[in-house]
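Quick entry, no commentary yet.
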Amino acid sequence: MDMDMHAAGVGSDTNYAFARDYWYIVAGVTGLLVAIRGVNAYGASQRLRACNNPAVKQPTRPDGPLSQAWATATAVVREVGHPQLYVPARGLRWATPPPLGRVLVLLCYWAMVAYFMSWGAVVDDAYFWERIGFRNAWVAVAQLPLLFLLAMKANPVGWLVGSSHERLNWLHRWVARTMLVTATVHGFHFWTEWALADFVQYELSMMPLVKYGLGAWGVLLWSVVVGFVPLRRLAYEAWLLQHVVSSVVMLWLLYQHVPANAKYHVWMSVSFLAFDRAARWLLLLWQNTRWRKPDGSSCQGMRRVGHGMSMRAVGDATTVVTIKDVHFKWRAGQHIYLWVPRLGPLEAHPYTIACAHRVRGTCCCNSIQLIVRAHGGFSKRIHTHASRHPEKTLTGFVSGPYGAPPRWDIYETLVLIGASTGASFTVPILECAAAAVHRTCVRRIEVALIARTGDEIEYYVQRAKEAARAAREKGIDVRLHVAVTGRNSEGESGVPLVPRRRESNTARTVERTDASKSGASYTDTPAEKPGSSDTDQPPDQAGACCCRRSSSSGTGSPRSTAPSGFIRDYATRPDVEALIRAPVEQAWGETAVVVCGGRGLVARTRNCVGRLSDERAVHKGTGAQGIYLHVEEYAF
């Protein structure tokens, strides 16, 4: 590793050029994605404008040669990117490869890196080992800033291209693995040259920077190995802490290792890291402090520092967390980081905001709700505290909102699939469509809520029913599919959720022959459980986000509701393809399929949407309209 401050190395001009070209390509790809985002944003605005024009019958269909060509190109890219191979073997599900689209991106990236590593460097002469060693040193260090750029939560690239940090994190991990390969090739060739000349010990004693390089390579190797899912999930909080420390240590070691003319890569990485931390700290400070004194007319949860946080245990493992008086806006599908010093002094965990943003004037305070599923550690402590002290309020701190969900109001049909707590992502989309003030393009919504036990999704089902009724009053066709696939508390296998509650004399069941064969039933039931009412909950917890509307409070008697025949219950897992195919085939415009769940459900949905798009030849002259797929996966 002959890279001291006075030795530029063999082939230095070419190495410098490749290091610059690497970032020119990164900038070019980013610019292309920004341009694509701009075209899509313009198309979305045109579509919404058409939705408000009664003369346009099908506003979500392309209406000209340019828009049709763009829709066709988009459909082709989507079809190529959707397929995914799923590894169902127990204990190996984490090894499920990325979807085909990401695999193709990686292959392109690896092709570029392989070209940089080898072009003009593989020449069998006296400088063979040294030339390849220097080339790969520059290729490795050129990737360093991108590694830190992709890890930023306050991510400028994500802001430009319309993505969020967690959706870029997969590329961060693969860039690290690729960088490890190039760094290994760099070190291997220098080490081999020294071994052939029999002066390894002399080189180590004479060149201290070699030891720093070996140390940086060791830290990178450690980070890559412990970053694999099984190890990362053993103790996520400990892993996260060591990951931050390892990153800082690696930067210092590389600063000591690389020559002066390559140190700008290290300083770029330091600047990205410092900017990200500073932006997050400022955001945390801004969102958790009040400069005006709270008064009696303010929200009851207002505090000078932090937010009042109430918790309510729902079932044996679910907690509804209400955070009061947040002064930021959010969109359905975004998430925040929650820090509760009393329950976890050094822990901040991500949770999806489980409610749509309230319309101004309908709520007395700006509160959000999180649905926390108790697994262990922090989430378990939250549930335990809520069970033991249901009336006690804690102080919580939030950071966010993070995430860049697309616009949901530009599609004619929405298919929302949520498994267990994945409903925290999908139900707010339904609520957002139901609460829309202006006319949107949405005409039909299919919602599927899937869980092993009814307790996991009981809270979501109640909210989904209320939102579905509100949406149907606006003329949107909503159908709710509820699947409880495991055993209930009485030990019965596969008992549907809604039929278990059918205790009221006013409830009636309409069984259908085809539904019976598929393990499903259609139900006409009241919206709430018999005897339930808004006053069964504390005032600050009774609603999707905060206070109930005045029309739903007061008497404590059950709210009267008309029977609703839009709910279908399953005792087994619903057929995802059948669930998606029916609305897609009946849609006159574009359909958006949204899925939030585990790897298995996500892979099945990806493959299903890919097959349907290919089978129907969407936007290829058949008249079939496009299918957009949005995926949220349990990936932390």
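second:
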Amino acid sequence: MPESPLTKIVDFHKELLSMQRLGLPMELGFEGPPNALGSQLEQIQRRLALRIERQGDLIQAIASDPDLPKPYRSALSTWVQCEHPTEVLDQLSAAASARRDLHGQMGIALIGPLILVVVVYFGLISLCLVVAPRLEAIYAQMWLPVSGSLRLVGMLRDAMPIWVPGVPVLAILAIVWWSLRRGRSRFGWLFGGRRYFKSLQTAAYARHVAALLDVGCSTGKALASVGPLPLQSHDLGGELATANVYLSTAEEIGQQVPPDDPTIAALPPMLRWGLVGQLDGQSRSQVLREVAAIYSDAATSQARRWRVVLPMLLSGGIGGLLVLAYGLGLMLPYVDLLYKIATQITE
């Protein structure tokens, strides 16, 4: 009895739900909370079943559904055609795992500055409640006008009902927000963050296409099934979609596309070469896997630099500024006092 076209979709959804129960990160492109994944997959399954009844072809039904998220569509297309579907699951979680790991690394890097914030917080409280009153008493006993730096400390003391409870509340809210952002942070603001995720997504995309080529798909059919390269760039979205359609149709009409064709200029250089370059006897799937390895190594190298540089910058930069501010707040009133005493003596 032939296997129903929906069987592979059902199996794919079971694997996704199993990965979710195990806590494995996935990059599916769905909106909403993670616990809504089951209902979202059921809706997609019913919708695809109707399309299969009308069109009679599973691949065509997947490609013609405009509401499927791009990462999900790419993974499902590869799953139903690939001989080794477990490879699809590894590719599906690659970018999400990297994002979660980077989120954890940055969280560890923030521990040092957080400790310094706590130390400075209690130091400022002691400065306002212990040191400042003694200095004010000394100024009063010596009939000296209060210095500007001590007046600033007094203003800080007057504002204690605001910042003493406010700082812990803000810190707790920041920690909760950071925890909730786990697996969803894009780090576009981080130096090299866009390049890091671009490398990861390009590597996963190249492996997707290579997996389809291994089972006998042509390059054009593989690109049509996988869809455009899902980079985190709103500016390149249209150009990447155009490049995908252009490469998908070029092979059907027998057109040779050179690597420097401006229509595909939005694609990363190595991926562009892997898709249309001269192979010198190698299979295109093998070349694409080598391209994927290059981009994966680039992302790993970038993450390794962050593991070293981020703690240094955060601890040295943020921590240094906090310690400097506390030191100035503590020492300037004493310096002003000594200066005024010395001025009176010389007079």
